[in-house]
Structures are given as structure tokens and as C-alpha cells.
Amino acid sequence: MSIVSSYATPEAQEALKRQRRMASIASLVIAVLVVVLVAVLLAFLLLPSLRLEVAPLVAYSSEKQEEEVIDRPEVTPQVQRQPAAPSSALAKVIATSVPTPTAVPVPDTDTPEQSIEFGDGDDFGEGWGQGSGTGFGGGTSFFGVTSKAERIAYVIDYSASMRSGGREDLMREELTKSIDRIAPKTNYALIFFAGPAWVAGDEVDWTKGEATVIGKGRRKYEWKSPGTAHEWRQVGKKQPVEWLSATQGQLSKSRKTIKETRLVWGTRWDNPLEMALDMEPPPQVIYFMTDGAAKGSDSWAREIGAKAKNKGIKINCVAMMQPKAHDSMEDLAKRTDGHFTIVMQGGKRKKVR
């Protein structure tokens, strides 16, 4: 409580009171201004750190995939088209490059793989086109059995018994077709046999009980028989078999060899299969064709089957119009997880397994 001098006049006292009111109002205004100024300064300092981050917008747009026609170097009877995937599975993501604290899940989608089914009929037809695919880079087919592999060996019966029933012409025709279907990345080998066995294209000088194969570099490989068709054996060093590249020049030579090689006497098919198994690197698939039921076939199937299974070699067997050869050849195919096909009179074929 302020004390006013009793000696002051009433006018002086009133003036003093007004002066005090003005001073109080001025002080209040100054205090308010100071508070406002402090608030403004704080706002400039704090507001940038409190700025709201706006998450970038992620949008999805669906785009229909065009159907794709598979283009093959060799024309086949049917053209397989890849089915269009559902539009929801083919949605593409459009996103900004600005980082965002919000994670947007993008589902992984798998486009259905093209399915190529090879049919099996009772007659001859084109079932394989040239070209490379997933997995192995080559392959071919023989008597309706298709294989995808980079190394394929043929073990083919060129015995004199093939002359009967049209077997010879059918064998040469189908073997030539198989060679023509070989994909460019495939290595292959042609091994012919009767009593003796030899690499296709080699010279063979033979009599009823002896044969000389003249191979690469004019090296000679001797074969002998005690006089029977099924007891031929190689004398001395075994003949090695080399891989051939599927070039146009080499394929042309093979076609000529298939056509011109003459049939000879005897039938023993374990020796040529052993030659194929001894190749380096070993074949992945062997196409084996014979018309003969030779003495010892059952034991050959067991022994050859065990060796091939151990090396991971699949043997596809073809019995050419010879019912007596069925059991041992089916057993050999089964032991190596291969296929067994019977070719009947007139060229009709039946796939047993």
C-alpha cells in the first residue's frame, strides 16, 4: 500500500495516481511484447524439426502381357504358345526414389513355365526341334524316345540279320532322322556292331572268325570268334571312341556313313556298350538298338546295367522285330531308368516303359 504525503495538494495527488497507472500499463504492454517476441523466436527454432514428413505415394498399375510365340529354327507340326499370366501377377511397381519410413510389401510372382509335352504314337513323326533350352543344351529323339542331353551315344546293330523284314531300311531311315534332329550344342558318337564292334566310318576287314577294324590314324584293332555268332571278343588294345560335334559338316559325314556302311556277320552287343561306357567324358544317354537275342544277353543286361547306373548313364533300348530280345533289353532299360521300345513288323512301335 502506497503512502501519499499529507502535505500534497489534491491536484498533485491525482496527477501522481495517473502517472502510476500509466507506468503500470506500460509495464504490462512491455511484458506482453517480450512474451510474444520470445514465442516467435522459439517458433523459428523449433518448427523445422517438427515439420511433418509426408510418405511418398506408391502406386500400382496393371499391364497385360502379350502372348509370346516360340520361334524354333526347325518348323514343327505344332507351335506352342506361352499362356498369358494373370494381370494381377504381372503388376509392375512405380515408386519414387525418396526414402520412406513406411514399408510397402511387393509380392514375388512366378510366371508359369512353358510346358512342352512330347507325344508318343505308333508311327513315325517329327517330335523334336532344334534349339537349346533350360538345363541341358542339346538333345534329339530316336524311335519316338526324346532325350535332352549334351552327350548322346548311339549303339546300333549292323548285323546281317537286319536284312530281313525291312529292318535295315527302317533302321537307316530312323537313325538318319535322329541325326538330323540333333541340337547344335550336342556331342554325339556312333558305334556300330555285329560280331565285332567299331566306330562308324572305320574300315572293317572280316572273315567268319576274324575281323580287323582300321580306326583313326590307321590303327588296327583285332577281333576273333571261335566260330559262333555270339562269342566275338576283342584281342589286344581296346578301341577308344571320340565325341563328335554336331556341325553341319560332321552331320553330313554321319548321314553318308549310316547309308553306306554294310552289314556283317554275328551278334554280340555287350562289347559296343562297353565301348560307349568307357568314353571320356561318359555319355549321359545311350540309344541302343538290336534285332538279336544273343547267348548271354541276360548276364550282359545285369553287368552293363550296373556299370551304367553307377556312372549315371541312361540307356534307352529299342528291340527291332525280335521277341526273344525283349526280356533282357527291358531289364537293361529298367536298371538304368531308361525307356524300352518294341518296333513291330511294318514299323509300328510300342513303348513298354
Provide an overview of this structure.
The chain has 353 residues and is α+β, with helices and mostly antiparallel strands. It has a domain at 140-351: Rossmann fold. Helices cover 27% and strands 20% of the residues. It has six helices and 18 strands. The strands form five sheets. Strands 7, 8, 9, 14, 15, 16, 17 and 18 form an eight-stranded mixed beta sheet that branches. Helix 2 (167-180) packs antiparallel against helix 3 (248-260). The protein starts with 9 loop residues before the first helix and ends with a strand. Residues 56-80 and 84-135 have low confidence and may be disordered.
In short:
With 353 residues, this protein is an alpha+beta fold.
CATH superfamily of the domain at 140-351: von Willebrand factor, type A domain
Global Rg: 45 Å
What about the largest sheet? 8 strands, mixed
Q: If you consult CATH, what is the topology of the domain at 140-351?
A: Rossmann fold
Please identify the top-level CATH class of the domain at 140-351.
Answer: Alpha Beta
Number of helices: 6
CATH architecture designation of the domain at 140-351: 3-Layer(aba) Sandwich
Number of strands: 18
Structural class: alpha+beta
Summed over residues and divided by their number, the pLDDT gives a mean of 78
Cα-to-Cα separation, first versus last residue: 121 Å
SSE succession: HEEEEEEEHEEEEEEEHHEHEHEE
Taken as a percent bin, the fraction of beta residues is 15-25%
